[in-house]
Amino acid sequence: MVRVSGRIRRILVDAGLVTDEDWAAAKERGGQPVATLLSQGLLQEDALFETLGRTSGVVPIDLGRIKPEPAALESLSKETCQEQGILPLSRNGDVLTIAVSDPFDVLLLDDLRRMSKCQVRPVLSHPGAIRTATDAIYENKNAAVDKLLDQVNGDAAQIDVQVEQAEDIEQAATTSEDAPAVKLVNLMILRALKEKASDIHIEPGETAIRVRLRVDGSLHEVMRPPTSMLAALISRLKILASLDIAERFAPQDGKFQIRYENRKIDFRLSILPVVGGEKAVMRILDACAMALKLDNLGYEPKALDDIRRASNAAYGMLLLTGPTGSGKSTTLYSCVKEVATPDVNVVTVEDPVEYRMDGINQVPVNPKRGMTFAGALRSILRQDPDVVLVGEIRDTETADIAVKAALTGHLVLSTLHTNDAATT
Questions:
Q1: pTM over 0.85
Q2: Higher pLDDT among residues 114 and 20, named by residue
């Protein structure tokens, strides 16, 4: 439906496109006079918009040749676009280009400026073309989402997400147009848990979002949701981790917890601004995975014997190396669980403490308060430890203290970010 401002009647009459009598008759029929005149054939769309474009100075465009940018579509809700008969086309910084059918509707333009928090640059198009383009865009978006959600087969209901924020926020997220994003996040988490992934990567692309899982140290792609869903997905994750939804240009870190198969699983979330939007990475911290015995980790018999002999030594150092997601932490915690008996004092220093273990003293690193790996390790050595776990040796000072501790009657377990023993 064409929105009519007060100037349109005078413009059309002065241009000879309609008469005062035609306009009065159309107005008596109710509804929008312009729409009535168009439907009766008394007014032609081409002539109408050529005249409006020339009079207003707003450029007429052909929506059939233009593909709206995802960033522009994310600036206004689907409901606003459909109710107001407008369509966001592109966004350059804080300038938003929007297709409108009435360039004189200053109240509408003011509302759009307020809702999008952008300077609005209107361009002119037929109301029918705007409606057709809007329906096609959101139907394609919904179809793509529905296709992805069909993969869930009801299993996503097994996931109970624990949110620290008030119920109002959770309810708003699940009852608004972002509800498909809530289901899609659950699907990603469910798939990652079933495939025993260590990380979930959500990356913006030009035509689609790339979702990848890290399994056994390697990343592989599992789905490609439409780019138009990126903002809703990132917002959902920020809500879960109690982060600032409005902040889109600074890195953010947080955590949240889900319940799955009667156990709690922690997630560490990292948000990073990149070209095209924001990238999210979730590290999955499953305490049940850490409870594995060394026998169940898949080591060859000779390697298993070597690890057991090293982890049960009276003193010395066991270093675990390998790329991200290769199982260093899992092996490390399995070794600690094996040696942590009532007559052994085990102390760990970690950044952060990923898994809570009963009977073990765990120290979190906090550089802002002066608690570094090296500083914490010095203090730990005055706590009469038998076994010391250092989450990661990152600098020369930590390495020096760890080696000296290993040479003076302590068993030190740690990791290094190297890919093989020779590099270590």
A1: no
A2: 114
